[in-house]
Amino acid sequence: MKELIENLKKQIIEQLNLAEVKPEDIDPNASLFGDGLGLDSIDALELIVLLEKNYGIKIQDPAAAKNIFSSIQSMADFIMANKK
Amino acid sequence: MKAKIVSYCKIKNNTVWVNGEKFYVDNQSVDITTFLAHLYKQLNLNYPKFFKMDNLCKLGILATELAIQNNSEFNNYEKDKVAISLSNNSSSIETDRNHIKTIADKNQYFPSPSLFVYTLPNIIIGEIAIKYKLTGENSFFISEKFDENLMCTYDSILLNEAQSSHTTAVIGGWVNVDGNEGEGFIYCLEKANFNPDRTGFSSSYNSETIHKFYNKTE
Questions:
Q1: Cβ partners under 8 Å of residue A59, min gap 6
Q2: What is the ipTM, given to two decimal places?
Q3: Where are the domains of chain B?
Q4: Residues of chain B positioned with their CB less than 8 A from the CB of A17
Q5: Quick check: B174 and B11 in contact, CB under 8 A?
Q6: Strands (E), chain B
Q7: pTM above the 0.90 mark?
Q8: For labeling, which of A14, B65, B144, B166 is most exposed (least CB within 10 Å)?
Q9: What stretches of B76-193 show up as alpha helix (H) in DSSP?
Q10: In CATH, what number does B3-215 get?
């Protein structure tokens, strides 16, 4: 799980062009949107692509996305529960 | 035309000129992406969204920032009375190329939403409008080269004819990126009677003047 979280941090920084953010700056339990990393709606779409591209996981229920992408930890939990 | 140029910025070949004076030269950067990142740091901007933009928008934002920084009256404009009129030759070709790469392989078909949103050139206008909270008129023109007559004609309509009581100032110019080549030229125009007592740089706006400023890179 720890390795997955570290990989997610690096992938999110690269995919979302967070040039001024370092992996160690990201609290796995902090909110990705709003006051946390300050991501926006386009970033949310990019996270959906990231899950599919890097982990082969499609989000079937759009309503669940809000909880899945609430933090790095929740993303990692979702990947662990759904990886093939 | 009863308008004046009150500031302008030209960026080309890793060099920046403000109001005709050389402002910054970067001899280190070997590509436009690195140059734009260096210039961003040089200006001490705290705008993380910058790094999400494509190079066309980065170039437009930096040139606009420098033009605005050198316009002492900018904060006195009502923001719904500031228009944006820009132009270029290559539209959003560089991002279009990058987008195609993400969808070329049907087995690796992952179009990037954050890339796709930059596959229109007029998103530069959107980025400038968001950063500086401008809500006035806006237009984007495609022309073979910087067309000072076209821009002067349109800016004249904005400032002097249609809705003449509405537009006070215009952020105009040319922002073009194709491959590793980029050229930005942004000027701030103001109605001639906005502040007759303004001090500092100011010049009558006409196609001859703007042609001269566009080409003044020595």
A1: A48, A51, A65, A68
A2: 0.80
A3: 3-215
A4: 51-52, 114
A5: no
A6: 3-12, 15-18, 21-25, 82-88, 138-142, 169-178, 181-191, 203-204
A7: yes
A8: B144
A9: 93-103, 113-116, 123-132, 148-160
A10: 3.40.47.10
**Closest chain B residue to A54 measured between Cα atoms?**
B110
Phi, psi of B15 (to 5 degrees): -130, 145
**Which residue of chain A comes nearest to B47, CA vs CA?**
A20
* B26-39 burial code (b ≥16 CB/10 A, e <16): beeeeebeebbbeb
Element (H, E) at A46: helix A41-55
Is the pLDDT at B218 greater than 70? The verdict is: no
Ordered by start, the domain boundaries in chain A are 2-82
Q: What is the tens place of the pLDDT at every residue in B81-102?
A: 999 999 999 999 999 999 999 9
Q: How far is Cα of residue A30 from the mean position of the Cα atoms in its chain?
A: 11
| The CATH number, out of the four listed (3.40.50.300, 1.10.1200.10, 3.30.365.10, 3.40.50.720), of the domain defined by the range A2-82 | 1.10.1200.10
Q: For residues B90 and B88, what is the distance between their CA atoms, to the nearest angstrom?
A: 6
